[in-house]
Write a structure and sequence with these properties.
Layout: E1 2-5, H1 10-21, E2 27-31, E3 49-52, H2 56-63, E4 69-72, H3 84-104, E5 109-114, H4 140-154, E6 162-167, E7 169-171, H5 184-195, E8 198-201, E9 214-215, E10 217-219, H6 220-233, E11 238-242, E12 248-249, H7 250-260, E13 267-270, H8 274-277, H9 289-293, H10 303-315
Parallel strand pairs: 1-2, 1-4, 2-3, 4-5, 5-6, 6-11, 7-10, 8-13
Antiparallel strand pairs: 9-12
Length: 321
């Protein structure tokens, strides 16, 4: 059995599809299944059992001997969530319990961290574990992810294999339910479909022209390949960046969305909201050397390739992965 937490969400549901493609069909899907807007993400997938998030540890205590691997993808991922108690409970304490169970039952673990831990990138975007305690996330969500990374690194007892993955700007199918937290590409497609144009934030930084703010956009299918590699590799425990390794501009993203829809670009610029302007990231780019150094050799989708696949094979067809 392979456990996937956050199973009904964007990345978790895509991961189950990837595992099914590799003939792993005894999947234990863990989530809060009361959120019906996520239900379509699991339709047609081969799942052995659905376990409510609140009942998971009791289930694991009774079934641990059948569990081969845990992917802990579930979290409160809303970057506008300011209830620190909720974030502490779901992103820190719950993860700590999973960590301890993996030690007790000798289960390998991959968990989702976040590039939100890097803040404004004052220390760069290198997955150097010695720098993690010095990082300055910009919001409580990023803080909660960094708090768990720090805690994990401090532990004397660790799972025999574990990896924390700092996801950068992930985009791809199965994010229909995410609302404002969905990727910029998802919102771009829907804006263009509705109005024929797209709005981007104007730059308020002298070093960046309008639309030339840069992010490391990573296609979810690349993330799934890395998860599969780590499940089979099971060596070189630690915390790893997971981006494309190549920063691209929002203007590039917009143009590729129009192109994938067979349309000429039509872009407007609007002011970045004042309440987030001083915390706005103008550049992120994952240093991927560490993952490459342990033997991961597959190429990542370019932005052109990823956007085309997402738009033409999923968004335009309202299809799921």
């Amino acid at each position: 059995m392979i456990i996937v937490t956050g199973a009904a969400g964007f990345i978790g549901s895509c991961l189950i599809s990837k595992l099914n493609e590799e003939n792993f069909n005894f999947i234990i899907a863990v989530d809060d299944f009361s959120k019906i807007e996520k239900a379509p993400n699991l339709e047609g997938k081969k799942i052995q059992e659905r376990v409510e998030r609140s009942a998971f540890f009791e289930w694991l205590d009774q079934n641990y001997y059948e569990v081969e691997f845990i992917f802990h993808i579930g979290a409160r991922t809303d970057t506008t969530e300011f209830d620190r108690d909720v974030l502490e409970e779901l992103n820190v304490r719950y993860s700590q319990q999973i960590w301890q169970k993996c030690i007790d039952y000798q289960i390998p673990l991959v968990y989702a961290s976040s590039a939100a831990t890097y803040g404004l990138g004052e220390l760069g975007y290198d997955d150097n574990e010695s720098q993690i305690p010095q990082l300055k996330p910009l919001n409580p969500y990023g803080e909660s992810k960094n708090d768990f990374d720090i805690w994990a690194l401090q532990q004397e007892k660790k799972p025999f294999f574990w990896a924390g993955l700092k996801f950068f700007n992930v985009y791809g199918p199965n994010e229909y339910h995410k609302g404002r937290m969905a990727s910029v590409i998802f919102h771009a497609y829907n804006q263009v479909k509705a109005s024929g144009k797209m709005r981007l934030f104007r730059s308020h930084h002298p070093d960046f022209k309008d639309g030339e703010q840069m992010r490391d956009f990573v296609y979810v299918k690349d993330l799934l390949e890395v998860c599969s590699f780590l499940m089979h590799h099971r060596r070189n425990s630690g915390i790893y960046n997971l981006g494309s390794g190549k920063a691209r501009t929002f203007k590039d993203l917009a143009i590729n969305t129009f192109t994938s829809m067979g349309l000429e670009p039509n872009i407007d610029f609007v002011d970045t909201p004042a309440d987030i302007r001083d915390k706005y990231q103008y550049f992120t780019q994952a240093n991927m050397n560490k993952l490459r150094s342990i033997g991961y050799t597959k190429p990542f989708h370019t932005l052109e390739e990823g956007v085309k696949d997402y738009v033409q094979n999923y968004l335009s067809k309202e299809a799921y992965y």
